[in-house]
Amino acid sequence: MIVLLVSFAALLCPTIHSEDASVGEYSTTWPKIAPQYCNRSNQSPINIVTASVQGNPNLTSFNFTGFDDNSTFRDIKNSGESVVVNLDDEKMTVQGGGLPGLYNTVQFHLHWGNGSSSPGSDHTVDGKQYPMELHIVNVHSKYNRNVSAALAAEDSTALAVLGFFIEGTDEVNKPKGWITLTSFLTSIPNSGNTNTGIKNQTTLNSLIEGVDRTKYYRYQGSLTTPSCNEAVIWTVFKEPVKVSHDLINRFSTTVFFKDESASVLNTNSFRGVQPLNGRVVTSQVVQTAASSAAAFTLSVVTVLLMSSLCWL
Ligand SMILES: *[C@@H]1O[C@H](CO)[C@@H](O)[C@H](O)[C@H]1NC(C)=O
Ligand SMILES: *[C@@H]1O[C@H](CO)[C@@H](O)[C@H](O)[C@H]1NC(C)=O
Ligand SMILES: *[C@@H]1O[C@H](CO)[C@@H](O)[C@H](O)[C@H]1NC(C)=O
Ligand SMILES: *[C@@H]1O[C@H](CO)[C@@H](O)[C@H](O)[C@H]1NC(C)=O
Ligand SMILES: *[C@@H]1O[C@H](CO)[C@@H](O)[C@H](O)[C@H]1NC(C)=O
Ligand SMILES: *[C@@H]1O[C@H](CO)[C@@H](O)[C@H](O)[C@H]1NC(C)=O
Ligand SMILES: *[C@@H]1O[C@H](CO)[C@@H](O)[C@H](O)[C@H]1NC(C)=O
Ligand SMILES: [Zn+2]
């Protein structure tokens, strides 16, 4: 019995995080953030402290429409800040997942560092920064797929952004969708370059394969680039997409911030984490480190109680 309780207690033991909670230094190549909303208090990205994440029963599974449809990519563009793929927002929607209604899926873009062994994600988890992050931008259906109108409304639920961490894998040519995506980078080296050849080649699902989409963090925040509007319901998925190192490396070695002649490669296109200012991050987790520590204490007390009972 005691052995059972002890092993039970061991199972409940909180996982030890070896990562330092600090987030390191950020690049100076990323344009300085200044305009309008960037100095407000609900900014993104943030460092997610897993021990402070609270359980939230509203965070059910999502319904994704059009994510398996290979005719949804409209074009791929070098925006000067990022690589953006514009999507068919009539065919693609997201709902469920605790979101207040139906959202149209407008575009996705990426943030990266300087190759697969360099930090590049916007969000961090317990101080861990991944090499890249994929953002799928969705706008509430009440704005009729007009993002400018949604931002003008000063509505904190106007956009729902889905964030996926990207992690390097030694497996080659993974996932297939990333081979297709990265094959277009050489055709859009300069800011403003667009290629419509990406139509009918791949699906959004093939870029985020392998991730359990029922496990995610939720918090209220902003766009991570100017004008930093505090209009975003953030979803950050816990599991990373595993992408071959060489495919990750293509971003920081192919795409330029402005134009090739200026020869400034787009690297470190992440903002750096912002203060929480009292905001709470929630998740499906019912068991936080704090509650498992409490459970551990309870088990120890039970073990002691049981063993003292043995002496009676
Ligand atoms: C934030 O920045 C804006 C524009 O740069 C400025 O007008 C405003 O005073 C700033 N607010 C605070 C609280 O610093
Ligand atoms: C869950 O949703 C309800 C209804 O929208 C809301 O009142 C409640 O605060 C939400 N709970 C959490 C933990 O966010
Ligand atoms: C892409 O596929 C759609 C739907 O199957 C089709 O209507 C369209 O003509 C195709 N476009 C190209 C450029 O192949
Ligand atoms: C998601 O889809 C399922 C199955 O089609 C449906 O039963 C459910 O009501 C949908 N949920 C939302 C929030 O749309
Ligand atoms: C990125 O990495 C390359 C190769 O390792 C290096 O030459 C370059 O200086 C790095 N760029 C930045 C901005 O750190
Ligand atoms: C989108 O909204 C903006 C701002 O409200 C408006 O000026 C613009 O005409 C709208 N665009 C379309 C295509 O309706
Ligand atoms: C796109 O999807 C259609 C319908 O599911 C399929 O017939 C076609 O082979 C697909 N094309 C590619 C390039 O995967
Ligand atoms: Zn982004």
Automatic annotation (TrEMBL):
Signal sequence, renumbered to the chain: 1-18
Cofactor(s) the record lists: Zn(2+)
Membrane-spanning ranges: none
Zinc keyword on record: yes
CDD domains (alphabetical): alpha_CA_IV_XV_like
Pfam family, one: Carb_anhydrase
Similarity-based family: Belongs to the alpha-carbonic anhydrase family.
UniProt protein name: carbonic anhydrase
Organism: Cyprinus carpio (Common carp)
